[in-house]
Amino acid sequence: MARTRRDVLKGAAAIGGTVLFAPAALGQQFPNRAVRIVVPFPAGATTDMLARLIAQRLSETMGQSFVVENVGGGGGSIGADQVAKAAPDGHTLLFHNITFSTTTSSLLYAKRARHDFDDFVPVSVGAYVPLLLLANKDVPVGNLKEFVEYARTSSTPLFYGSTGPGSIMHLMGEVLKRDTGIKMDHVPYRGAAPLVTDLIAGRVQFAGDQLSSSLERARTGQLKPLAVATKSVAMPNVPTVRELGFANLELQGWNGFLAPKGTPQPVLARLQQEIAAAVKHPDVQKRMTDVGAEPSGSTPAEMNDMLRQQVAQIRPVVEELKLLVE
Q1: Is residue 287, in this structure, part of any structural domain at all?
Q2: Rounded distance, CA 207 to CA 84, Å?
Q3: What rounded mean pLDDT belongs to the chain?
Q4: Is 202 left (phi over 0), alpha (psi -120 to 50) or beta?
């Protein structure tokens, strides 16, 4: 039977409708099984705690389990590499922090990287966590500027600790040495917990990490807060590095989700929407703010802009200082 022009147009409209609405349907059908969230650091640290907090809420609201898996090593690069090579369907995510910018830059500089920044697409920043610079409580200084003067005249060797080679504190420590001419030896640790323990004991005199790792110890006087890299709601009376004259140390600490390159846009949009809702939940917000984290839920575009600016700031410094991940 011959088809009329109206029949043809009806068919075209039906096909067009299928194409138009398929992406939206894809987002609504996601997830169709458990979602794996890779945290590229040991359990118990700030990034792990935030990942589990958000994952629990997502499991409750999205109808599937969001399971956190700790894959440490290589300054976070081993876990990141697993996600870069995973199927780009939204069921494997990376929950990383600012160290993503330093370690990836370092590995690219050393020509040892198994992935690049472009192997990931940003999903959303779960929370911003300011970076906090600290001293042992017996160091006779009150802020970072005074510490630099103390270091210039100290007759005993000084040591600074970081959460590992290529970490953000490794970068900040070397930048501080470069900009001020002070002498300190770097002592890398396998995570924040042993670093904080040795800082309290005085085995290292200076250190820093995400504020949440040492907030309570700073508040109770076990450690001496010297500066924050960006203004902190949790510690409003601690000056920023810029206010003290160390603008090169101004870096935005973050913890956020990334997905493998090629993850469909509707899936990214659904994830961002649910993450934003999760971090706005009153219980989640309270637990975050209690540890000095500042809930975000940014869009992929906002996270992408932040990352590009940060990498543009960090990568040249990594190369200048020859900062290597071991």
Answers
A1: yes
A2: 31
A3: 90
A4: left
Residue whose tokens read 């504020």? 211
For the stretch 10-52, pLDDT in tens is 444 444 444 444 555 666 789 999 999 999 988 888 999 999 9
Instruction: Give yes or no: residues 219 and 142 share one domain.
Output: yes
Alpha-helical (H) ranges within 85-133 are 99-109
Q: Any idea which residue has 């975000």 for tokens?
A: 296
Q: Helices in 5-98 by DSSP H: which ranges?
A: 5-29, 46-62, 77-84
55: left (phi over 0), alpha (psi -120 to 50) or beta: alpha
CA dihedral (44, 47, 52, 57) in degrees, to 10, reads 150
Asked whether residue 21 is assigned to any structural domain, the reply reads: no
Same-domain check for residues 46 and 149: no
- E strand map for 238-297: 254-260, 294-295
Residues 52 and 125 in one domain: yes
153 and 293, same domain (yes or no): no
**Mean pLDDT calculated for residue range 52-59:** 98
C-beta separation of 136 from 197 below 8 A: no
- In this predicted model, what pLDDT tens digit does every residue of 147-197 receive, in sequence order? 999 999 999 999 999 988 888 999 999 999 999 999 999 999 888 889 999
CA angle 172, 212, 303 (to 5 degrees): 70
27 part of a folded domain: no
Task: Determine the Cα–Cα distance for residues 36 and 122; give it in Å rounded to an integer.
Answer: 16
Q: Which of 249, 274, 298 is the last residue of a domain?
A: 249
If one counts the domains in the chain, the total is 2
Q: Are 191 and 41 in contact (CB under 8 A)?
A: yes
Predicted confidence (pLDDT) per residue in 77-108, tens digit: 889 999 999 999 999 999 999 999 988 888 88
Same structural domain for residues 211 and 284?
no
Asked if 154 and 297 sit in the same domain, the reply is: no
